[in-house]
């Protein structure tokens, strides 16, 4: 599974790295360049949208928190650098031509591929200001806003989703995001409503329709367990996180800290995630069932868990060499009290 996602990521990076440089070398605008911009946009859009939609329908934040080892570090080592250079040239071109809506959209999707959601959200905002009736663009913007907010749907993201669906009631990504947002609020009836609409959207890929139906079935089962009283009380744990004094000189106050619970079944898919900054440490955070990424993987579904904390100077969810980490080890999710996690190790 991990190899599959790495291949997808490499394909996306490779496509953008190949398409952006020849596009940016064109200095005069004309019909030929417009076609080149459209082709580049489609190549960037198709894999990025498919990946993001799958993540939102299945488990949005969890996939980003996978901690399996990466491929050999020197393999495709120049791809991110090449993409960064291409993005820099695109930024320069947009400064000279700020009314290029497809260019802003391409920049936004490039930022998402580089895991820079805050920059992506700003680029989407510029694109939408020039093209406010594009429902797909609005859905992408909402996704970037949520990603920049640690995967949580804030009021701004919810308003953008509503705007997208007001323009196109069958926009697949907007429906998927609306369903995920409702599920996060534990509004299961509304989540099912949006997933049912997604499943009936025209020209929907069969695998997405199947995933939507799976989510519907699991959410109905979850809602039924809650209504008949047979489900155990929703789990909630308190985690006290601190940084080892020996590592204080290796961090900055603005570095990101991820705190997440893992099941004892060997999966690296988090059951719940919180994000804070080094300046907030030491801190006590709460992890609970409302933070579940999928209906069938919640804290209350597992009696034994572990809680990990990791400092990322880049702010990226994927672990990298030099990150600082710590773990509680296996503990009970039912009667653990306050779980202590000390960040005292360095990722090699």
Automatic annotation (TrEMBL):
| Keyword Membrane recorded | yes
Q: Where are the TPR repeats?
A: 101-134
InterPro entries tied to this protein: C-type_cytochrome_biogenesis (IPR051263), Ig_CycH (IPR056412), TPR-like_helical_dom_sf (IPR011990), TPR_CcmH_CycH (IPR056413), TPR_rpt (IPR019734)
The cross-references to Gene3D superfamilies, in alphabetical order and at most eight, read: Tetratricopeptide repeat domain
Q: Which SMART domains match?
A: TPR (SM00028)
Q: Which residues form the Cytochrome c-type biogenesis protein H TPR domain?
A: 92-199
Q: Does the keyword Membrane apply?
A: yes
Q: What is this protein called?
A: Formate-dependent nitrite reductase complex subunit NrfG
Species whose genome carries this gene: Caballeronia arvi
